[in-house]
Design brief:
The complex is a heterotetramer, with two copies of chain A, one copy of chain B and one copy of chain C. By secondary structure, chain B is of the alpha+beta class. Chain B is built from 26 helices and 28 strands. Chain C is of the alpha/beta class. In chain C, the strands form two sheets. In chain C, strands 2-1-3-4-11-10-9-6-7 form a nine-stranded mixed sheet, sandwiched between helices. The chains are: A alpha+beta, B alpha+beta, C alpha/beta. β2 of chain A pairs antiparallel with β2 of chain D, so a sheet runs across the interface. Bound molecules: adenosine-5'-diphosphate and magnesium ion.
């Protein structure tokens, strides 16, 4: 089973990398770029066949490792479908 | 690619795709006694590429001096080795990663650093210092910023993670590098003289072991890419660039060093360009044995890899070893502890052949000797570079304002502070860096001793372009001078010879000329070449780079307390100029950056004078007569004074001696073999110098907050510093 | 003082900090492999700088899951001292030994240089050797030293005197309120980005970090 | 207009980060994790109001800055919709 996890910085947490890219894009002449935030994406292949149990396991993985919930939010997508 | 069968008809097109000429293919047929299959052809093509076989440069490299009583191992192994006393050895080498860095600056530069470190630790040394010599195109070329950003981040990214300090280097900007940047990385390591490891395989039947990262389809044909010219389509072709994994390399380093402390290793060789092919063939050839590999045992990252792909992959962070029989388990345990892949992939044979098996079948079988010995070697036609007419004094007029000219030089792209770069490198990790980037040579202590290694990389490409022989001499002399200026004894060099297309006689002439000059200087200064690397075909659309033979030198300071730096130490000290000033402005930074002209011959290098002056300066430093020392190079006396003032935060007032040299030529001329020292005992310095026939002129004194050259200029040290420091950060921030 | 330095795969300041401790205490600290799950009886545990697990995913995140970190946590819960430098600070935050998180530097670049700092709290086993408000210069070397915590946490840290060091008009990474190092509630865990072990030997360009090691030796022995 | 750009390593390109995460997840006892690849996500706010022109501009940004197509692929999603 294929899953994707998106990890983004919480609102209100400064995103220096996003900011740097924003500036670089403007530097390249892209005037209309108003804001850039950078996040991470994990493409995960699981042995699970059951979507619910997979989602549960992914949630544990996110809480314990993939995201630092002090600063980050996460979102799980299973087989193309949004979850949690 | 993997779907292509191994047994194919070798057409002239396939031969050409592999970068082999018809004549070279004839040699292959001769060596094989039959038509090669695809894997075998691939193996010949990488082994006979410029990158691996040095076919255009070999005859000339042989002319370089490689010996001295302290040289333990000269060119031919993974890196060169010198004896630094007390059972310690310094092991070092420099290598280029030019083409990959142009295509993917971060990963290209990073894997360059990873590769050179492997060359050093494969010989049993712990890497203790990295250096980087970089050449970029014009600062305002549309690609330059991104390339600088990526290359610097990549060098830092790899070295910082490995925990090896990057302690120095050099950078130039010139439009000649617009389409072809140079990224040369040097690594210096330390080992005990009785625990050095070589690559000659021995012991028929002994196991051949693969350790490190798995093999993927990375950079197949990287070695041939490094041997081909760029054109506008190169970016379209987009060869797979390797991604570096410094974490795996760090584990590989620790695991290898742990195994090296045992008696399990017979021979070891890193997998660099041409990966598994080059490493196994070199080990077998050096040991005069055969070698058989079972490709099914090679750890693979991807499925369905063909023999061709496995043999030509340039995946990073891998090593090949021959172990003592019965030591496999010990070795396996060490690698398991560090979490590094370990596999027995073959054994040594008495057949003298390089045999490859896959799926129980023989997929390659080549006699080792001809694969190495029959490699082509060319004496390519070459033309000497025409000498430049001398620059008449009247042709290099004084600036409108001497102070402005000095500011222009200390703030110019070739003269400004490189802090923006080296602050992105961990230059302090290992807690032995006692002289950081920003001085003449870096100094790194031999851990736990009073000894320190001095390291510098140097070359002035515009000199080499104007006169390759003089430029070659100058590169070596400047490196020797930088090491001397911190108080150390220069011992040996590594080089990285970056040139354009050797098939053009004028480029070949540059290579031949530079090597001639380097050789002379190395001989005269007893500064032998113990390792190096050649990078040719650095051209885009037929426009070559400036000839750039980068020299990386290493010296020894037996007592680190005797070192000196370039910063003015105190107010009221005398400033003494050692060496002869003639006011040579040809090819000077002043001529180029202030007058906007690139003309004349470069300054002549008098090697006997160089040696005499350096030896006496070193003595003054070690006896503490000289409180600070700086050699004179780009920008001449004025720039050297400014750098010493900026570094120390102390001003100076000097008078130019009464000579018939025009003041601006005295200040900005780039005559060689000169140093500035500060001292509280100018008379002693002068009489010492005079006794050795070295001119010594007391110019003035340190003190105050301004740099004043009477009748010429007065600038506050703060303004100088500001101009010096501002250029790179501002440019890189895009303002 | 019985001290140990934990060695993670990818640690690279483990030797440097061991040398500084050895110099200050006269005994070499034990070097303990991250794969162990117990610690001997110790006065001090050091989490050293480096790139544990390549700092892949997030700095310090994977190291925080190492078997040894359970033991380090127990040691800290018992009131044992933990000195967490640079990558160690990042791990300590990831492991929950200290509040907050370390984000990538505001300039987006690795930075290695001396920074000016102020000693904010001298009431800990690590900082007792300084005067309150003392200005010192110590090198940093990191890509992710940008300390972040929510305002409530920052207010609490400040209110309870748990900010150990602050950058003194010389913030190299954009950290909140110029924080360079913080203490745990019981002041027995110190996390800091700068490397005092690189400032404990005059030949390395300064000795402003030496007082930390002598202070640890004096109070923890 | 809100857009998202996903940048992933091409197949066959080494992904040391993904590998390390994979190992760490297995170390945490997540046996069923077969493969992890890490990618980047950019959330970009654009002044554009026309989806087609936005897509075109994003493509240029990807080619010039956000991705290095030697080793990376990119995918553009506009206002929740996949594109290019
Ligand atoms: N790429 C670089 N990385 C690190 N340090 C560098 C780099 N380029 C220059 N430096 C440092 O900046 C200082 C000045 O460089 P350079 O002008 O080439 O010195 P010199 O004229 O003495 O050879 C040296 O200490 C050098 O090590
Ligand atoms: Mg110099």
């Amino acid at each position: 089973m294929q899953a994707r996890v998106f990890v983004t910085l919480k609102n209100g947490v400064l995103d220096p990398q996003g900011k740097a890219i924003e500036n670089a894009l403007r530097g390249l002449g892209h005037e209309g770029v108003e804001k850039v935030r950078q996040g991470k994406m994990f493409e995960i292949e699981l042995a699970d066949t059951d979507a619910d149990s997979a989602r549960e396991r992914l949630q544990v993985m996110c809480e314990r490792l993939l995201a630092n919930t002090v600063i980050e939010n996460y979102r799980i997508e299973i087989g193309g479908q949004d979850a949690s | 690619m993997s779907t292509e069968p191994n047994e194919i008809e070798i057409t002239p097109e396939i031969v050409a795709e592999h970068g082999l000429t018809t004549d070279e293919y004839g040699r292959i047929l001769n060596a094989m006694g039959r038509t090669p299959n695809r894997t075998e052809l691939g193996i010949f093509s990488v082994m006979w590429s410029e990158h691996c076989s040095y076919k255009s440069s070999r005859v000339w490299l042989k002319t370089l001096p490689t010996e001295a009583p302290w040289v333990i191992c000269g060119p031919g192994e993974n890196a060169g080795i010198i004896d630094i006393g007390d059972g310690d050895a310094a092991i070092f080498k420099m290598e280029s990663h030019n083409h990959p860095s142009f295509i993917e600056p971060y990963q290209g530069a990073a894997t360059g650093v990873g590769g050179i470190m492997r060359d050093v630790f494969t010989m049993g040394a712990r890497p203790v210092a990295n250096m980087n010599a970089l050449r970029f195109g014009s600062p305002d070329h549309h690609k330059t910023r991104q390339l600088v950003n990526g290359v610097v981040a990549g060098i830092g990214g790899y070295g910082n993670c490995m925990g090896v300090p990057t302690v120095g280097g050099e950078v130039n900007f010139d439009p000649a590098y617009n389409g072809n940047i140079l990224v040369n990385a040097m690594c210096v390591g330390l080992a005990k003289t009785d625990r050095i490891f070589y690559s000659a395989a021995a012991g028929i039947g002994n196991p051949v072991v693969y350790v490190g990262a798995r093999t993927g389809r990375d950079g197949i044909h990287g070695a041939t890419l490094a041997s081909a010219e760029f054109d506008d389509q190169s970016e379209e072709k987009r060869p797979t660039v390797q991604v570096g994994d410094p974490f795996t390399e760090k584990l590989l380093l620790e695991a290898c060093l742990e195994l090296m402390a045992t008696d399990a290793i017979v021979a070891i060789q890193d997998m660099g360009a041409a990966g598994l092919t080059c490493s196994s063939v070199e080990m077998a050839d050096k040991g005069g044995v055969g070698l058989e590999l079972d490709l099914d045992k090679v750890p693979q990252r991807e499925t369905g890899m063909s023999a061709y792909e496995i043999m030509l992959s340039e995946s990073q962070e891998r090593m090949l070893m021959v172990l003592e029989p019965g030591r496999e388990d010990l070795a396996r345990q060490i690698f398991a502890k560090w979490g590094v892949e370990f596999a027995i992939v073959g054994h040594l044979t008495d057949t003298g052949r390089f045999t490859l098996k896959q799926g129980g079948k023989v997929v390659g079988d080549i006699p080792v000797r001809p694969l190495v010995d029959d490699a082509p070697s060319y004496e390519r036609p070459w033309e000497p570079t025409a000498p430049r007419p001398a620059l008449a004094a009247a042709d290099a007029p004084a600036p409108n304002d001497m102070g402005d000219a000095l500011l222009q030089l200390v703030g110019g792209f070739d003269g400004c502070s490189r802090r923006w770069i080296w602050e992105q490198y961990d230059h302090m990790v290992m807690a032995d860096t006692i002289a950081w980037p920003g001085g003449d040579a870096a100094l790194v202590r031999v851990h736990g001793t009073k000894k320190a290694l001095a390291i510098s990389t140097d070359v002035t490409p515009r000199y080499c372009f104007a006169d390759p022989v003089e430029g070659g001499r100058q590169a070596v002399a400047e490196c020797w001078r930088n090491i001397t200026a911190v108080g150390a004894t220069p011992l040996a060099v590594t080089d990285c010879l970056n040139f354009g297309n050797p098939e053009r006689p004028e480029i070949m002439g540059q290579l031949v000329g530079c090597i001639e000059g380097m050789g002379e200087a190395c001989t005269a200064l007893q500064f032998p070449v113990i390792s190096g690397n050649v990078s040719l075909y650095n051209e885009t659309n037929g426009v070559g780079i400036l000839p750039t033979p980068a020299i990386g030198g290493v010296g020894l300071l037996k007592d680190a307390d005797q070192r000196t730096g370039m910063a003015f130490q105190a107010e009221g000290e005398s400033i003494v100029l050692l060496g002869e000033t003639r006011g040579h402005l040809g090819q000077s930074l002043y001529l180029r950056d202030v007058l906007g002209r690139v003309e004349g011959p470069p300054p002549p290098v008098d090697l006997a004078r160089e040696r005499r002056t350096g030896d006496i300066v070193r003595g003054m430093i070690r006896s503490k007569l000289a409180t600070a020392c700086h050699d004179l190079s780009d920008g001449g006396l004025a720039v050297a004074l400014a750098e010493m003032a900026i570094a120390g935060g102390i001003g100076a007032t000097i008078d130019l001696p009464g000579t018939d040299i025009a003041p601006h030529a005295f200040l900005f001329g780039e005559d060689q073999a000169r140093y500035l020292v500060t001292t509280t005992q100018p008379e002693v310095i002068q009489s010492m110098a005079e006794a050795s026939g070295v001119p010594a002129t007391v110019l003035g004194r340190t003190g105050g907050t301004e740099l004043t050259v009477n009748k010429c200029l007065t600038i506050s040290v703060e303004v100088l510093r500001d101009r010096h420091e501002r250029t790179l950060p501002e440019h890189m921030a895009g303002s | 003082m019985k001290a140990a330095v934990i060695v993670f795969p990818g640690s690279n300041c483990d030797r440097d900090v061991a040398v500084a401790l050895h110099q200050a205490s006269g005994t070499a600290p034990a070097m303990i492999w991250h794969g162990d799950s117990t610690l001997p009886d110790l006065d001090l545990v050091v989490l050293p700088g480096g790139f544990s697990y390549g700092d892949y995913l997030r700095v310090g995140a994977i190291a925080a899951l190492s078997p040894i970190m359970q033991a380090v946590r127990r040691h800290a819960e018992r009131g044992g001292a933990v000195f967490a430098v640079c990558n160690g600070f990042q791990m300590a935050c990831e492991a929950g030994l200290l509040p907050g998180a370390l984000m990538s530097n505001a300039a987006g670049k690795y930075v290695c240089r001396h920074v000016a700092m102020r000693v904010e709290n001298t009431d800990s086993p690590f900082t007792g050797g300084y005067d309150a408000g003392q200005r010192i210069s110590i090198p940093v070397a990191h890509h992710d030293g940008n300390y972040f915590a929510d305002d409530a946490t920052l207010d609490r840290l400040e209110g309870e005197g748990l900010v150990a060091f602050r950058y003194d008009n010389d913030n190299p990474n954009g950290s909140c309120r110029d924080i360079a190092g913080i203490l745990s509630d019981n002041r027995r865990v110190l996390g800091m980005m700068p490397h005092p072990e690189r400032a404990a030997d005059a030949a390395l360009g300064g000795t402003d970090g030496a007082a930390m090691f002598t202070s640890m030796v004096e109070t923890l022995s």
